[in-house]
Amino acid sequence: MKKWTLIWSMMVLLIITLSLSACEQQPPEEVEVQEEVVIEDYKPEDSLPLRLAITRPTQLNPLLNANDTLYQVYHLIYESLVSFDENMDLVPLLAESWELDDSGSRVTFNLRQDVTWHDGELFKPEDVVFSFQVLRNHMNAIEYPNVYTTNLQQISDVRITGDNSVTFTFTRPYSNALETLVFPILPQHVFASTNDALLTSNDFPIIGTGRYQLEEYDASREMTLRYYASYWGRKPYVDEIDISIVPDREAQISMFENGEIDLVEPVAVDWLKYTDNEQVKGISFPSSHYEFIGLNFRDELWQQKDLRQAIDRSIAREDIINAIYFGHGTATKVPVHPISWLYKQSEAMEDETEAEETEVDETVESIEIITLPEETEFVLLTNSENPLRMKTAETIVPALEEIGLKVRVEAVPWDEMQDRLLTGDFDMVLTGWHFSLIPDLSFAFHSTQESMGNFIGYSSEDMDSLLEAAFFAPNRQEKEMAWHSIQDYLQEELPYISLFYKEKAVLYRTTLRGELSPTQYNIFNGIETAYLIKPQESVANNDEEQ
Hints:
The protein is α+β, with helices and mostly antiparallel strands. The chain folds into two domains: 30-284 and 506-545, Periplasmic binding protein-like II (D-Maltodextrin-Binding Protein, domain 2, 3-Layer(aba) Sandwich); 286-503, Dipeptide-binding Protein, Domain 3 (Dipeptide-binding Protein, domain 3, Roll). Helices cover 26% and strands 22% of the residues. It contains 14 helices and 20 strands. The protein has helices at residues 2-9, 68-73, 125-137, 177-180, 249-257, 305-314, 317-324, 352-368, 387-402, 414-423, 442-445, 461-471, 476-493, 536-545; strands spanning 19-20, 50-55, 82-84, 90-92, 95-100, 106-111, 155-162, 165-170, 212-218, 222-227, 240-246, 263-264, 280-295, 329-331, 377-383, 406-412, 428-434, 496-509, 512-513, 531-532. The strands form five sheets. Strands 1, 12, 13, 14, 15, 16, 17 and 18 form an eight-stranded mixed sheet that branches. β15 (377-383), α9 (387-402) and β16 form a beta-alpha-beta unit. α12 (461-471) runs antiparallel to α13. The protein starts with a helix and ends with a helix.
């Protein structure tokens, strides 16, 4: 156990990519979105520029940046060795292929040979090694949170192993080796030893290998991207992207409402109100925001599995999603997203609505034989800044009372709630995690992590063994099997009462066409299919001017 504790103390960085989800912003007041009539017979090749907006960044280096709006735009400029698909699995990008050795501690990437940087220089293996060294050497400059730093300390060596290959060696078998290496690659030749200061400078040179290159940049106003003609992949219809730089997300939404930009990621969950206008559409997609009820296992009452199971059966997850989150969520019984390639399909989630009334009757009977002191009252803690979470708590309480439990909601400020979780001063808590794309639940359930993410004080040798098996799985097949075992255990033992994953969305004007397929990792997924239609009003005005 001491050895395992040492390993995990080396991985404190995992927590910076995971944060307890705090507050959901109040839905903005309804506004009338400007309407436009569009011309239907328009060739994609004649696309207008795409108009976007980002909030003002403080760090331009994509390896160190934590501004989410810039992070998304950088998917258009920079590329990584591999990328995430819609199932959170890995697909090739700058690497054509890769091989894991039998031990699971070494991965070799075979790089594409038809890639050039935006300044015309050839993409080389040296660029990969250099980019990793930048991450490792500038960890103190990395803004919070940053997914790329998660498990860097597991890497012991990176070296060029062929004319067009790079090998990463890990300290021991490591199942998340590939996910850890999803970070943007920088051009080594731009940052010679005398130019190392550029890495954290406001004059950072934005040069990537992606579909679009930087044409103009004004830190206080805008940036312009243009299609890179020598790009190795499919040519897009959109040749130019004009990006306004604004103070905050509210300013982004305002620009969208006024018809000044074509696409935006809203912060409110009731984004469907914008689509009441015929000129606006929305695409929802799964997010990594997971909601759950945590139980304080330091209280002997929660050691009764029958009690935990009764609470789990009593909650109508789909009703909460539909009534409070406008249907923008995916119910789950485990802290693994149902879209993930690691998810094990559960019969427990099937036909939940039909079984609800029967389960309530059975649960009432099981509660009656559970040992609880007379007049026991549980306090369900949550944070007062989050109105949707408070509504969820108010929905859960009657459901628990229906099966015979007495529960009271206590809503406190976020900082106070965090202090109480750290000190163990709670019965039950309704909260959430914003999971990293690098899958690992050890921070929440391993017995060595009580001072970190395991604030519920959960301790189980069986759970520890399952988590370690998943962490050290030498190949993808064994990793998947290990995660299935974890999910079986979680559904049986219920250290968390899992509720649902929230959805996010992208709003766009109907002048934007194509097959965009946004994901949590990249909201511009499918950008190569997009094109912009001219509004009819604009054409009419042009005719009048002539």
